[in-house]
Every structure is written in C-alpha cells, then in structure tokens.
Amino acid sequence: MSLHKQGTKFLGVWSLVVLGGCSHLSAKTLPPAASTTAEDPYLWLEEISSEKSLSAVRAWNQRTESALEARPLYPEFTKEVSAIVLAKDRIPIIQLQEGLAYNFWQDEKSKRGLWRRTSLAEYQKETPAWELLLDVDELAKKENENWVWHGANCLPAPATRCLVSLSRGGSDAAVVREFDLATRDFVPQGFLVPEAKSAVDWYDENHLLIGTDWGADTLTTSGYPRQVRLWTRGQDLSQAKLLMETDKQDMKILGYSVFSPEGTKRFVYREKSFFSGELHALEPGDEPRLTKLPLPEDFQTQTSFDHWLLGSTLKDWTVNGKTYKAGSLLRVDLDHMNEPPTLLFEPTTRQALGRVIRTKFRILVTIQDNVLTHLYSLDPKAAQWKLTPARTPRDGVLSTQATPFMEESLVTVNTFLQPSTLLLLEDVGAEPVPIKRAPERFRANGLVSEQLEATSTDGTKIPYFVVHKKDMPLDGSNPTVLYGYGGFMSSQQPSYLGVTGKTWLERGGVFVIANIRGGGEFGPEWHRAALRENRQQSFDDFASVARDLIARKMTSPRHLGIQGGSNGGLLVGTTFTQHPELFNAVVCQVPLLDMMRYHRLLAGASWMEEYGNPDDPKLRPSIRAYSPYQNLKKGVKYPEVFFTTSTKDDRVHPGHARKMAARMEEQGHPFFYYENIEGGHGGVANLEQRIKMSSLIWTYFDLQLR
Fold it and tell me: Which is nearest to 312 in space by CA: 449, 494, 489, 463?
C-alpha cells in the first residue's frame, strides 16, 4: 500500500483480490435511481435488509446448501480444508514494530480472534510465548456485539497507545477505539470514533487526523469523508478543527502521519479519483499550515527517507525537457521541490515496480520481472543511490515487511508448490536466515508449474501460470480452474496453493492464473490498456487464455471452469455471458454485474476512473455492450454459475449478485447462489465461514468439471 494509503486489498478463498475503497452509503441513502422498475424489475433486491430481499436470498441459499452439501465429497472437502485453515502449525503472520512482532490469530477456539504480541527473538522460536492484548471473542460476548477485527494502528514506542478498529459483522464501517498496550485495555474516556467508514491516524499522542461522517454534506458521492480535521484529546468530535475540505465529486480526503527516526512528517491527500490526487504537506503549529506539493496528480507515493520522497507516476512525466517513463522509481527532494526528480529505476516492457519500503538505514525495492519478484536495496547515505540485489531466492514471489525503527526486515518467499518461507534479513547484503517454514499441506510430488502465453485478439502475448501433474494427459479431459482479476493495476502472482493443492491438484485438477491486461503485472501501460472504453480488452485476454488451454488440449469446455471475485467477478460474469460455449463452471464472487448502475451503489462512484461513467453518452455504449446483467439472454445455454456474496458487503453491493440470480431464474437458467450474512467484501468473517465457503466452491467445481 502506498504512503498515502491508496490501493487494493487482498484476502479470500484463493487470493481473492477485492476493490479498494469503501463507502458509507446505505440502501436507504442511494442516489436517485437511473432505472425504473419497468426497465429493471429487480431493483427491490438492492434493498439490502428488506424482508422481501432476504426471503429470496434464504431460498437460494437453502437450495444451494442442500444440493452441494449432499454431495459425497463435501464432508471430505470440509475435513481437508479445516485441517489446513485451523492448523496449529500455521506461520503466525506478524507486523513489526520496534523489535516487537504483533499477530492476530484465529483458530477453532478463538473464532473471532486474539490480538497478541511477542519479541522478534521470541517469535523465531518454534513455539513462541505470546502476550495476549485483546480477546475479540471475549469482548464480543461481554458487549453483546458481533465484533470482527479490522486492525490496529499504534504509535511508535515509547508511546503505548493504539487505535483499534472493530466492525459489526465484517462490513467496512467500523468503530475506532483507543487502546493502551500498557494496561491491555481500552482507554476510559479515550478517543472513540462512532461506526462509520472513517480515515483515522495519529497526529501525535493527544491529537488525531480524522475524516468521518459528520452528517449532511460531509461525504463525497463515493461515500468517503470529504473533510480532514484535527481532533484534540478531550474535545467533542464535532468540534474537531477543520483542516481541509474536498469537492463532493472527489473520491475522498485523508490525513496521515509518517513516523521515522528522522522525525514525523504529516500529509493530507486529496484523492480526486482512484489513481489521481493532490498531496499536501501539513506543517504543525498553533495554526497548522497546508502546502500543496508540486507533483503530478498521478504521482504514487511509496515511502520517504529523511527529506526524500520516493514514488512513481502512472504516465510519463517531463521535467525541464527530460521525460521520466511511467512506472519508474523516482526520488523527490522535499526541501527543494523545484529541482527535478532523480531516476532510481526504469522498468523494461516486461517489468513493473513493486513495493518500496524502508528499514532504519535502507530502502527495500521489489521489482516484478515477467510477473515473478526480485528484491533490491538502496543506501540513502551513499552519494549515488544504486539498486543492489539482495541475496534472496529469484524463482518465486517475495513480499517484504519492515519498519523505520528497526534494522531488520522480513521477506516471505512464495511459490505455487513450496510452502511459504519467512526469511530474516539483518542486513540486505547478508545471507538471509530462514526463521519460519510452513509445513506441506498437500503432496507436491509429481506436480509442476509452468508459465505459458496466449495470443489475445490484438496479437498481444498474455502470460499465464499453469499448475498440474507432470503426466497430465493432453486429451482435453483435465478438470481445470482458470482464475483471473484484470483490474486496478493489481498483479496476480504465484502463492502457495494450500487448500487448492489438497482439494483440487491432488485429485488431478489443473489450476491456472491469467495475467491479463487491467492488472499491474507489466506496469501502468498494462493497466491502462483495459481502462474505461477499452475494458473489453481485459475480457478478450481472459477468453484467449481459455482458448489457449483448450487448443493445447490441457482441457476442454466440458472440463473448464473460471473463478474471480470483486472486479474478477465482473471479469468472469462478462466472460461467461460473452462465451458460454467455453465453460462448464463459473464461480462469481462478490461481483459487479450491473455496470449501468454500479456507480450509484455503495462505493461504486469511486471506480469510475477504472470503468467509466455509464451516464456519459460517449462511454455508455461500450459499458452497456459488456455489462453482464444487461446482456443475459433467454434461450442461451449458460454454464450453471455459482454466485457468492455477503449481506454485509458495504463496498460492492450484494444487489449485483442478487439481481443477476433473479434474472437467470426468470429466464430459466439454472444456477447456484450463496450469500453469507457476515463477512463484508471478503465474503467471510471468520475461519469457520471460510471453511464452509471454500468447501462449497470446491464441491461445486468437482460436480461441474469431472
């Protein structure tokens, strides 16, 4: 996630990528409808909690559960998924802070989860001793609330205060409460932000930078805060000092602090759209002063070191006659903003800049090269900043974690077939030390992964990964699941296939990930190629990968299924309506499907930079041409689709999946449907729900593709 906290989030059944952003619009506060009931007879399904809507949902759920849970493999899948998801020898995922490792842990006893911490040295032991900070199950019982953990934001030591976010049922809307690490309890009369989709960060121990719902006209049309205020401890929230207000048509505004050994920097980011905005430096004082930084609006800030700001642009940037290529890593001097940026890295056509973070003394840079990841470092104390390769593996995907207050950093190494390994880098030039290795969750012997290419409609080569048995027959008989996303500049990369490996690959199934345009695998241009009026290109790429698999006789339409969530739900929804003859299974998760109304539902307005505005006469025809809900036809033989969503999803409206199911039912097309009441946009709120959702999906794929 970039320094100004913009980007996409990741979670879910496989590595479900979900749309960034949230909204505070409810079903009762929707903008005026663009459709009438004569044009759209299923508008009533957009009423999230009405008894009529929920009655339809319950009927569909019951029908799906009865059909799939009765299958012979369902209890077996449940047992296998449970063993992996609830395994006690999972690597505890941690967040570093001043020598401490913070972890949020869920298991069969702690379904809502435990927030805990230990020292980095203790964490490296086989069985670390943890200090319990908060038991969310106990808190939920005590307060009679359906709390779902949404994370914590802690001040650097020696301060002991954190901002803990808790959601009711998993929705994006959350309550923010001040927590004291010293007492391991919430602070009496401490900071308390009522339930909303707020943007809150520490200014210092006695002040917060806050954007929230203050009532009328304080939210943008996307449902985000349009005001940033400075809130003083002990002050009523309504009296917080206004620092800046953005236009109602902008996406959102937020204030945040960057704490480091060199000092604290504070910023306000006016996010005009998903990928553009204005960065303002916030200078402290009795009257805090905001100064707009002279950066391109598409400048994506990643990290800072001392007086340097590091980031990249989404389009070429020309300064004093010199052009910096889109996606290049640039260094900007905050003390001399009139000087041109310094080029630190320029990608080739098959590279993309990944994550840029910092340790106490170094800057770590990940670079995607033909979709895989390599790690480099920069020395900010050197006269010339040069990328130095780290001594980490170069045949997988690396994810990094560091904090400005520690010299050490952590690197997680992922491949499809080898369990994740966590490496400790005490210095980037030193040999990394493996400190955690996840156990094998499935038999990888006899399995291989390979990277292939398909040719899309315009001749572009589209890479994709295939995982399968070495002796797989090339006769079109192999049950195959093709996964895709293709949006918001999000890259789809290899990750250990624990559940997928056990439930699918061990039984002879094939798993595929497509690196289609709209994603970020090859930088901003790869993303831009499928924006707005060019969105069809993403769907064409995906269908081209499907055809390539069939042409190679790895599978056939009878045995080929597709899967995608959120924007990926739009991808598979569009692809099966355009090419029903190619597939026999579709898992369409928390999807966008009615693209003529998406911008009027919950956070939809914030994605118009990606999809375009369907009210724009120039864009409306291209959006209408692919929108799945409008293009479903009676008399066409479609695969028996499986829609999943969540009632508590307050980001992508559950009405998308509901209305698509209702229209399929009206037209006589069979389908499966499961709407989890909890879970938010991730679809599940706890491990128990994750087990059920995963078991239903793999039972469905087994039923349809074998």
Answer: 489
Q: Is 566 among the residues known to form the active site?
A: yes
Please give the Cα distance from 619 to 604 (Å, whole number). 16
Contact predicate 2/302, CB 8 Å: yes
pLDDT exceeds cutoff 60 at 195: yes
Could you tell me which residues come within 8 angstroms of residue 524 by beta carbon, excluding any fewer than 6 positions away? 313, 314, 315, 326, 327, 489
pTM for the structure as a whole? 0.94
DSSP bridge partners of 299: 313
Q: Which residues contact 437 (CB under 8 A, 6 or more apart)?
A: 91, 419, 420, 421, 422
What are 72-125's pLDDT values in tens digits?
Answer: 999 999 999 999 999 999 999 999 998 899 999 999 999 999 999 999 999 999
Q: How many CB atoms lie within 10 A of CB 585?
A: 28
Q: Which residues of 544-567 are buried (b: 16+ CB within 10 A; e: fewer)?
A: bbbbbbbeeebbbbebbbbbbbbb
What are the CA-CA distances from residue 49 to residues 55, 143, 629, 663 (Å)?
A: 10, 23, 21, 20
Three-state SS string across 246-279, please?
CCCCCCEEEEEEEEECCEEEEEEEEEEECCEEEE
Phi, psi of 289 (to 5 degrees): -115, 135
DSSP 540-601: HHHHHHHHHHHHTTS--GGGEEEEEETHHHHHHHHHHHH-GGG-SEEEEES----TTTGGGS
C-alpha distances in Å from residue 308, one per residue of 201, 265, 302 = 22, 11, 11
Output the CA torsion sign for 164, 168, 170, 174. Answer: negative
Residue closest to 416 by CA, chosen among 500, 474, 479, 336: 500
pLDDT tens string 562-599: 999 999 999 999 999 999 999 999 999 999 999 999 99
Q: Which of 548, 540, 538 is nearest to 512 (CA)?
A: 548
**Given 4, 24, 599, 681, the catalytic residue:** 681
> Residue 36: helix, strand or coil by DSSP?
coil
Confidence of residue 395 (pLDDT cuts 50, 70, 90): confident
For residue 382, the model assigns a pLDDT of 94
In degrees, to the nearest 5, what angle opens at C-alpha 409 toward C-alphas 408 and 412?
Answer: 145
Q: Using one digit for the tens of pLDDT, what is the confidence trace for 668-693?
A: 999 999 999 877 788 777 889 999 99
Give the strand pairing for 560-565 and 585-589: parallel
Element (H, E) at 69: helix 51-69
Marked catalytic residue, from 304, 420, 566, 627: 566
Please report the pLDDT score of residue 356 as a whole number: 98
Q: For 120-237, where are the E strands, in sequence order?
A: 131-135, 147-154, 161-168, 174-180, 185-186, 192-196, 199-204, 207-211, 227-232
Percentage above 90 pLDDT, the chain: 90
85-112 as b/e: b if 16+ CB within 10 A: bbeeebbbebbbbeebbbbbebeeebeb
Task: Give all strands of the β-sheet with 363-369 in edge-to-edge order.
Answer: 351-358, 363-369, 372-378, 388-389
Is 393 in contact with 372 (CB distance < 8 Å)?
Answer: no
For residue 6, what pLDDT is reported?
Answer: 32
Locate 364 and state its tokens.
Answer: 């770590």
Q: Rg for the chain (alpha carbons), in Å? A: 25
Contact (CB, 8 A) for 144 and 181: no
